[in-house]
Please model this.
Amino acid sequence: MSLLYDERLDGALPSVDKQQLLTAIRDEIPSLQILHRPAELRPYECDGLAAYRTTPLLVALPENTQQVQALMRLASRLQVPVVARGAGTGLSGGALPLEKGILLVLARLNKILEVNPEAGIARVQPGVRNAAISEAAAPHNMYYAPDPSSQIACSIGGNVAENAGGVHCLKYGLTVHNIMQLQIVTVDGELLTLGSHALDSAGFDLMALFTGSEGMLGIVTEITVKLLTRPQCIKVLLGSYSSVEAAATAVADIIAAGIVPAGLEMMDNMSIRAAEDFIQAGYPVDAAAILLCEIDGVVSDVEDDCQLVEGVMRAAGADDVRVAHDPQERQRFWAGRKNAFPAVGRISPDYYCMDGTIPRRQLSLVLTRIAELSEEYGLRVANVFHAGDGNMHPLILFDANEEGQLEQAEALGGKILELCVQVGGTITGEHGVGREKINQMCVQFSSDELTYFHAVKAAFDADGLLNPGKNIPTLNRCAEFGAMHIHRGQMPFPELERF
Amino acid sequence: MSLLYDERLDGALPSVDKQQLLTAIRDEIPSLQILHRPAELRPYECDGLAAYRTTPLLVALPENTQQVQALMRLASRLQVPVVARGAGTGLSGGALPLEKGILLVLARLNKILEVNPEAGIARVQPGVRNAAISEAAAPHNMYYAPDPSSQIACSIGGNVAENAGGVHCLKYGLTVHNIMQLQIVTVDGELLTLGSHALDSAGFDLMALFTGSEGMLGIVTEITVKLLTRPQCIKVLLGSYSSVEAAATAVADIIAAGIVPAGLEMMDNMSIRAAEDFIQAGYPVDAAAILLCEIDGVVSDVEDDCQLVEGVMRAAGADDVRVAHDPQERQRFWAGRKNAFPAVGRISPDYYCMDGTIPRRQLSLVLTRIAELSEEYGLRVANVFHAGDGNMHPLILFDANEEGQLEQAEALGGKILELCVQVGGTITGEHGVGREKINQMCVQFSSDELTYFHAVKAAFDADGLLNPGKNIPTLNRCAEFGAMHIHRGQMPFPELERF
Model:
């Protein structure tokens, strides 16, 4: 691998003549809409990780796959890097632009091409909103299962890039488990089909490889998703606990009882209070923790399982267990959980949202350790969990205007992610690596493992033009990061640009 | 990619000095057991696809991961190809040896390293039998879900190589959905960890890429599998139909009703009669088709779902629906299905087992077309299906001693696989590509797609030493096959060596 490749992967890019690039695009793809004036570019300078901002060289807004192919052919020829962007709701900076690169915005590829209830599939373009797929399938009593909290806004293409999860991924799986086929445009502008409409595909599973690859292997231009029949019946239980440990025990016991809830979420007292203040979800504000457990299926099954879950929750020490009496109450219960992040945003000038995954059995240990770290660093931490699958979202509360607090938040965040790796987990759950966690990847993976990541990257994009500097760190970066690590005597957090 | 690579991938290998290789292995890895005499090598000349036979240069039987690493380092240095083999039960010739290569038999890496019921995992070596994992987990009331019909004999390492399915993969997924982490030895003898013990991993999903890669990317030496809690209750329904179409409708209707059976299998009249003669399963021998539907879960759920399924089966036109009254009858129902292949073997001198996957909605169409093809070619076809997920196993009955019948069986088989691709399916379900379907891959995939398969292969094994000539055809092969295709005016089947 050339040094150029290694450097480019790390974001050290050669300069591009903007005017020359603009002229080439206008000559060769006259129908393609391009934004290039500073005021036009401003809205695209960051995604959901707003702490990082870069103005792109220019923004391309293709309206069809042919334009994407033509643009990639041109970018390859001129060796200009390309960052793909969906709705820009990502939380790890995966769509952070490059000042020497094209930002390829797929928002206008927003057609639902086919809804086939008989086959249980929908074929959609990448700019289609996650929730819009379920809306289009609703007349057939079907829906698309993965539901990130941002589902009203986030795009299915971004979901593929990040292998997004959501409240229901415990029972219904991540994005990769709910898609069947991808059409992608390669770095050279070729059109490829990955996967098939059948259960399994021959050859290497490139569809699974592509899913979660954060725009580094190609540009997705069409997705065939699975549609599920809407469950006959949905019930949500809310269990209140006076200790976090008891709630964690209940989580393990529910799973061990052989029940697969549609969702199993946990919130700690700080999150409960913040959500209740914001949304009036009907949460018990004195509880140390609550569990929200959703059961879906045919009516009689759901009723039986609800009784079972209630029994398990009480046996684990629940002070109270309530079942939502009607769809309105059920939606209120979920509204509190789904708005936990903005709710916490109301009680602190700034917060930093973490996203790690741990083995379920380590839940109680990790929560105890986070509480200790919180005290040690003098910063409050609110905990919101996809408890059933061990995906944690600790929110570190701080005030960027207070001297040193951002650094403390960074350091605490690093410690929490390090803790996730120590107990056998990973540094990402569903938000991806992006720009945010590029250094933590050096902790998670050995240089042997990274070498194979690079080899796979090179198989698809030998020149490193697709989203360089994200997701997979270079060995150079890890060598520097390792040195820094030793120097500072603790795992540092990526240098955030200041708010 | 060099021509050497392309040729080697296609099995045209440089000669190896056997004596020199033996001496090198004995010098460098004295503890490694090697078989090299013709009589010792004979048992290893084929796997479950016994129509293809090759005597390997020598057989290595490592007893630990260090020996596998040392052997791969030596093989890489001397540029000797290596074919990995588990229990040798594979049906597509994936473990067919090379006469100029080492057969690396992983059968002695057969330790169960850890069973952790709390975490819901087991850590095992690749030579562990599939069924042995569930046996080891049984004291904890847990089991490993994927259950190929060969589960008594087949090894978990082979299951990973082929991404094996089974009767229960409709509800519980394929091998890739039931493993969490792989330890592999690379072609250079490095040890790598793919995946994690958490729900999702950062970086590219190399574990999914490796699963089903048929020994072409590395040698798996340790597998962490998921264990599930054994369901409280299991029931099996048997529905009898006087038309195949009605049975196919019932399959679609059961899935559409929102029920996820643990298994949903279909057999046609010829399979029913053969199985009944062989096993006395209690099947209705006059039915055109039967459906076997297994429901598992907590007691009350299972009872409710059974009633629902019975209703759907009857509404679709079932002449009769029976529920197995006790575990013995349930096991008899399944025994007929699981022994369908040997049962068909009793009514025909030879049979050829196909393995294709089609979208579920195409079931009825494909069955009708197979019946027409059967008539056209003058050969009987018995149909056994994982109906719920569209994975078909048509068995083509023929007599190799009758002039021309093998060729007819080959041609008919090719037509059936072509049909699978035409209706939007694939040429493999769970048996893999191996040597058997290497030419059909040229029909399934475009040269662009194959180019990316090769690039991924090269990322892991640039010299093409791992299982060359299997799974992924070279572009040369496809060019020749395409020419042959046009020449003969029909899709030819791979030239089988004669029985």
Chain A has four domains: 13-105, 112-229, 233-343, 348-432.
